[in-house]
Design brief:
3 strands, mainly alpha, Arc Repressor Mutant, subunit A, three-stranded antiparallel sheet, 4 helices, about 80 residues
Length: about 80
């Protein structure tokens, strides 16, 4: 991980998982799960999401695209991370 990626993830570190809420416009369980995972973890690669959530890439990519289109998730290089608020 580069210094830029490190400093980006630092702004999300230390998120209390009990303080994270799901936006009301997220309806599918998979989308909610990925959103919450990224809120708590701060950042993940597609491979990390595959392993941690036990979801296949074919399921994750549309979810990540939806979260990006709703401006809830950003992508930097190979990392997905919560959009800065």
């Amino acid at each position: 991980m580069t210094n830029t990626e490190s400093s980006t993830s630092d702004q999300y570190s230390g998120v209390n998982p009990h303080s994270v809420s799901v936006p009301s416009d997220l309806s599918s369980d998979g989308t909610k799960l990925v959103y919450l995972y990224l809120q708590v973890s701060g950042e993940s690669t597609l491979e990390e999401l595959n392993q941690s959530l036990e979801m296949k890439t074919i399921s994750l990519l549309p979810i990540l695209n939806t979260l990006q289109s709703k401006e809830l998730v950003d992508r930097q290089d190979n990392y997905y991370l919560p959009a800065a608020t």
